[in-house]
Amino acid sequence: MVLSLYEVPRSAARKAGSALDQTGLLFVTLLEGLRRTWDVRRWWGEYIEQCWFIARVTSLPVLLIALPLGATISLQVGEISRQIGAQSATGAAVVTALVREVAPLAAALLISGAAGSAMTADMGARKIRDELAAMEVMAVNPVHRLVTPRLWAASTVGVLLCSLIVLSGVAGGYYFNVVQQGVSPGAYFDGAASLLQLSDLLVTLFKAWIFGFIAAAVACHMGMNCAFGPVGVGRAVNRSAVVASILVFAANYVISMLYYALVPPRI
Q1: Which of 9, 198, 253, 265 is most exposed, with the fewest beta carbons within 10 Å of its own?
Q2: Sequence-separated (6 or more) residues with CB below 8 Å from residue 225
């Protein structure tokens, strides 16, 4: 059936309105989860359990991604710098890229893909079994009970994963730049320290902290508002990974733009 000229704008308006509604509900879930943060004794046990779960499912993938990622950056940058006679600058490029951009993004994507998918499936299963409704009947807010510990667990593990990604990436870059390309270890690490500032590390940890909140909030929101049935849960898992990735990249652009405007990079 061909849509009339009047139905096309209406359909686009309905989709835009639905997207705005979902965005508003997502922020409501995030703010409501953070509102009862002060009541630590009610969610401390769940927080520890979620931290262990997220760290367990993301640590090995982080190593498998960070090592070849640092090696690839080192290999590509090393070939270019060798052509212009500046191989000692490879270490600076590798470590600067890892610390400023790669580490928080990789941590957030792994959390949203591995741990976030499990969170969405868990929340979706609780909804289709009416566990969330039962908690509300017993005067237990499911957001405070389930979402709050997952928000703080994802943000905490995201910060911790940044250090692991940086160390693994530096090790991979060291192998290709020093062992394979013949650059001295002193030149590799001296170049790495020449462009970085303490503020770079602090902003990176701040990014990972914020990205953890985003990934967990999207996962929990999609799971708690999924359609009934296994198909609805599966679609919610798929949507949560995609939406979390988009929001993480958008937030990364905004934070990086503000940081570079306020703190000019060292030359």
Answers
A1: 198
A2: 25, 127, 236
